[in-house]
């Protein structure tokens, strides 16, 4: 799928790798205990015994989750749009002495992967990089085995495009309409480049709003059952208003879901 959305996302992520942005850095200090704590499987209610289980890290390159799952004995495949991100997954796997498979591709087209081939699809923040989340959900439903799980972290639909820079002296002003497929952009947070500023200009995030109705309706329509919903938020009530820490305390910027596939249920 080589449309403008694909090309823009690929260009941005290759630039982020070159800039050594926070979420492109492989985790090289893991062991099994640290990997389990990092993934938080118990907190999420996901099976803890991963030995031999097939895991897909979807749009999740960078050498972080893939290394953690492999250290816990999972059979790991990473699909990502960025060749640079996938190179970091391979680097992390070599460092830890584990095996993973890497595939360069778009989360909207998983045709290279077989039907019902994964016990768990792990999808970190990236859903808003494409206009229509339902295309992704349809692909995920095909590659997950019956009874398998889909972990999804995404922007809180009610606060998409809102950051600490929207502070107006009394609160954070919402300006984006609550609708599907509205393109939004905002500056990268300072913590993205917490080591050194990027050497060349990195294309700004280009994201698309997804309503909660489309996310939930799209997944239940594919036969998924919701097992967990968690708000990712801060808890620093003394943070300075207008700071990122204060914003996270007032407006949880992210959601985590755990879904389980049950084909044949009403709506499938």
TrEMBL record:
Segments passing through the bilayer: none
Name of one Pfam family that matches: Methyltransf_11
Keyword Manganese set for record: no
InterPro entries reported for this sequence: Methyltransf_11, SAM-dependent_MTases_sf
Gene Ontology molecular function: any one: S-adenosylmethionine-dependent methyltransferase activity
CDD domains (alphabetical): AdoMet_MTases
Alphabetized UniProt keyword annotations: Methyltransferase, Transferase
Entry keyword annotation includes Transferase: yes
Domain Methyltransferase type: 56-151
The protein, known as: Class I SAM-dependent methyltransferase
The species this protein was found in: Nonomuraea longispora
Lineage: Bacteria, Bacillati, Actinomycetota, Actinomycetes, Streptosporangiales
């Amino acid at each position: 799928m080589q449309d403008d959305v694909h090309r823009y996302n690929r260009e941005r992520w290759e630039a982020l790798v070159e800039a050594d942005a926070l979420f492109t850095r492989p985790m090289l200090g893991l062991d099994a205990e640290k990997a389990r704590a990092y993934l938080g499987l118990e907190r999420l209610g996901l099976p803890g015994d991963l030995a031999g289980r097939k895991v897909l890290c979807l749009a999740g390159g960078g050498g972080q989750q893939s290394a953690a799952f492999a250290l816990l004995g999972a059979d790991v495949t990473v699909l990502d749009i960025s060749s640079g991100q996938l190179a970091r997954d391979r680097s992390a796997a070599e460092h830890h002495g584990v095996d993973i498979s890497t595939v360069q591709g778009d989360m909207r087209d998983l045709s290279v992967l077989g039907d019902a081939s994964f016990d768990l699809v792990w999808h970190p923040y990236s859903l808003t990089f494409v206009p229509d989340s339902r295309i992704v959900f349809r692909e995920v439903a095909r590659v997950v085995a019956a009874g398998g799980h889909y972990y999804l972290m995404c922007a809180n639909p009610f606060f998409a495009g809102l950051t600490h820079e929207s502070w107006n002296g009394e609160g954070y002003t919402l300006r984006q309409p609550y609708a599907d497929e509205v393109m939004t952009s905002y500056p990268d947070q300072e913590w993205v480049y917490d080591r050194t500023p990027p050497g060349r200009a990195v294309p700004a995030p280009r994201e698309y709003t997804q309503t909660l109705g489309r996310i939930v309706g799209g997944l239940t329509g594919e036969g998924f059952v919701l097992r967990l919903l968690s708000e990712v938020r801060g808890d620093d009530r003394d943070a300075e208003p207008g700071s990122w820490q204060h914003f996270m305390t007032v407006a949880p910027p992210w959601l985590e879901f755990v879904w389980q596939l049950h084909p044949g249920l009403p709506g499938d």
